[in-house]
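Quality-control log, excerpt.
Job 1 of 2 completed; input and output follow.
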Amino acid sequence: MLPEASSDGAQIVAIVAIFAALFTVVEYSAASPSLVEFRDAPPFNRVRFSALFATVFSLSVICRGFAEPSATTMFFENSSAALGRMIDFTFSPVRLMVAILPDDTSLRVVDRVRNAAGLAYVMSLFSIFWFIVLLRVQTWPRRGGAFNVWINLPTFDPTAGGDVVKRLRRDGRINIFLGLLMPFLIPVIIKMAAFMGANLRLDDSQTLIWTVTAWTFLPAGILMRGVALTRIAKMIQQQRKRAYDKAAANGLLPA
């Protein structure tokens, strides 16, 4: 979609996309646990993938408009500009992203970074809100079926020690905290890296797209994971309570 993209870059993207597709097919078709979490608990991964795709696509359309403007690119650019101005206030994540730019950055690049950051941040907030709505409406993660912790949480070891519910709640809260903190922390890390000579050229379209996408997608994904872990902990606790009440009703508990 980017007019200035080279043929070598397009080939690299195609290779990465092929490997990502093969990895996804293998992970979802394997019977044993894998690295992909919540693979049997839709729409967790669907929401995250849709948010990632929508963010990259929207920013690509905006960047395409810099060289080849059209009615579609103008619509995305005007919408992002309105969102960027609305969210660009003191100590906001968008203001911090703009603050990482060097002092000699042109106003055109500053506006592009602000607009891209505003649109991407709003889309990440919407993805979190949409996941929470689906979580409530569809009674996620079971929806009437069984939830296999081993399959859906392959990196979580229930036998590692300690109560499972407490560990899930703790991990969920840590993920929620990190998800809320990272939009403010990532610009600080980028600024510190710039002081050590690792400058990001946000005037380049591809660098701008992937930097802003990572800045919004990673915190949103971590926050949604925290919400999901907290929900699973609550589900396990409710199942325990029902089993305890049933055993008590049948006289199977010691007096």
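Job 2 of 2 completed; input and output follow.
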Amino acid sequence: MTYDTRLNMRITFFILLYLSSLLASAQSSFNSNYLDAISTQSLRQHVYTLAADSMQGRGTATAGEHKAAQYIINHFKAQGLHPLKDTTYLQDIGLWSQQWGEINVQINKTPLIHFQDFVYLGTNPIEPRQYSKAIFIGRGDAASLDRLELKGKVAVALADNLNNWYQLANRLKQRDALALFMVPAKDTSAFDKLSDLIATRHQRQLLLKDKPQLSNRFIHAFALKQSTATSIFNCSFEELKALSGRQLRRLPQPTVSLHGPVHIQRAKAYNVAAILPANNSTKDALVISAHYDHMGERHNRLYAGADDNASGTAAMLELAHAFVPLRDKLDKNLIFLATSGEEKGLLGALYFANHPQEHDFNIKANINIDMVGRIDSAHKSNYIYTIGNQHYPEFDTLVQAANKLTETLSIQNNYNEPQPYGNFIRLSDHYAFHRLNIPVLAFFSGLHADYHKPGDTPEKINYTALSQRVKLIFITTYLATKKTAFNQ
């Protein structure tokens, strides 16, 4: 028997011994009446409130998310929980917002309408306002370009494919042209299809971790409707298509005005965090996290995010309520952390984990709750998935012990293994702590057909199952607050 084998056997023995002692002490000290504070009706109210139309899908840094944050704050205040930072429950997660202002194009002082007459294809701002002359260049072949003076001009070209403008734009940039207007030569519906696609992008707020640095070095590229092009040059489209060579110079060169600002500012994106103090002066803390953001509104449809993650947020709020009467029994501080920006890449959780200087606690472990309200296709009832316990045996010990003190659930470990969708240890907020070697345990009820779709609505939540799961999370958390847990 090798030294490593003997060592592993000793570790296993002590884990089993610890489990036995923990079960004995837990059964003697844990009062099942604590669970009476967890209410199915209260969980339902939280989910319906957070997933209501008025929350607008809780998109990160949106008014809907701010409204959800205030709802969470009000609950924390009602429970008498302390703010994480002095007098505020909000933690700015340091994002920047980038959003287009109005794209304005005028021809001879007559305004064109964005997404009806033209579409801006570029990504660089047009500031300050630019003035130039429009010149028709046919299909932009080399022979035609050589005959034309393009410096500072807006070149209007025919194109078979509005998405394939980079090569011509590069040639025009080399000739110091200011902008390129592409007109569909064949498919008149191409403009409308592109317009719908770009409109969605332009109306969306882009969130970034660092302040963006924008450049005016690139040519400004536009798509132009056929009818708009003919009105600019005062001729039929058939006449336009027939022009070539020296004939291009015969057309008028109307005055063009271009303006397209980009607004950059600090985004109003916040974690919401509250503290339930331990019964002593320790700085050791356990973080209970759930992201409260979702996907907002897209393509004129609301993404309510009832399971993802109003269910997890509701669970966290109910846990806060249930733990308040136990404040004298907690050997560790409890931090209730509702994170923003999870759908954007775990941004809120990463910010919290990476900025320990913004609080005064020693984070010993994290329990994360994400999507715990539905029944997946593999089950009918009475189950929960746990993630992370394969990395942290002590958490596996705790959840198994907790499961013996409530309505026993079938604890499933499927998502501890990589899935076709990805490695779930990396796909929710617990990863922000795991990457720092802080023990994590995540609770999850599995994927379903409404994941990241408008159909994720409150009436599809199984509130009885949600309540059972919250009770298991409550006991697991209670055991994790004990002095002997995570005392490394």
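Post-run check on job 2. Residues 1-9 have pLDDT under 50 and may be disordered.
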